[in-house]
From TrEMBL:
Bias kind Polar residues: ranges: 194-203, 239-271
Protein name: Replication initiator protein A, N-terminal domain protein
UniProt keyword annotation of DNA-binding present: yes
Molecular function via GO: DNA binding
Positions in coiled-coil regions: none
Amino acid sequence: MADITVNQVATQTFYQIPQIFMVNVKKKFSAEGKPTGKIKMTSLYAKKLSNDGKIAYGVLYDRCMLSIHSYRNGELTYVDENGSVFLVYTVEDLMEILDRSKPTVLKIKKELKELGLLREVKQGKNRPNRLYLQNVNAELQEYEHYDAEVVEKGRDKGTVVYHHVKTLDYKGCVLFEIERPNSEENSVLEKPIKSTNSGSQKSLPPKKAIKSMNSGSQIFLPPEVKKFNPIKTEKSHTENNSTRHSSRKPASNSNELNQTAGTCDTPSQKTSGKKFIQPQVYSLLQEIADSYFDHLPWDNAYHLTHRQKMKIGSFLETGWVTSSEVLHCIERIPQDCQSPYAYLVTSIENLMAERKLEVKLNAHKRAQEQYGG
């Protein structure tokens, strides 16, 4: 027998971090032991919250529990009139508690606020703000389903490649799904694309290569693009003529731009009543995200979040910018840029604005020539 010591109790005390903050992967295998797929349990918290932010939430939650314990002992200092527990910490206090610099602490607070995990109430001049830690929203849980494919030939023979085929929300409703090909000849997944920058393999859905008129590189789209019918939009005769002669307008025979209007009518999307990024655009986003990650320096590299990729996808859907041009914008991001994603979005928006302005100027010029103005 051994006594319980103070040191032993100290080693068994932990901060609580919600499991929804982390990614949990469950792999599936066949009866023969071959991988058949995997399910990745993730969330917006896991994708957007930094490790410092996750730890900070656990530390602040522990302080909230201490305030509740004090309240039960008659101490009402940290409980407001509504019964809500709050914390009183200045930035300097958080710097000491978290052992982080001031910019890092400000970044942590910003992350927690943006994700709805922290609410700050001002108390007036020269008085520290009240910090209200918020409960985690379990509805942000997502389940990403992947199919497994074993490379059978080449240097990477035996390597398992996972293809993202479906994403479900916490209720099991479909958020994203790749439409499965019906024909037997298209049912076999092709080999994954290999990045020339890092040598890692990229997991992409079934793809069909087409030729881009802008850069000469191949862009891969899923088979269902052939059946896609874009929504028709009305344009004046003058505008149609002007866009035909614009030096900034993408080539008219670009498959990527000719098929970017509307939404894909997959069965799951019909019933949900929501707008989704089209599958052919969605398949390009992983290549863009990989190029973005590979371009950033190793000490500042991070993966684009789902929401950030969807924003870039919305740019592609407008038809005013192509995926090749987005990749060129990524290549022009300075290595010492403090906000690379903001730089990328601004570059794309400037390119789109420049193209729209040129179309308007050409349309005005042609109208003057036609009507003698």
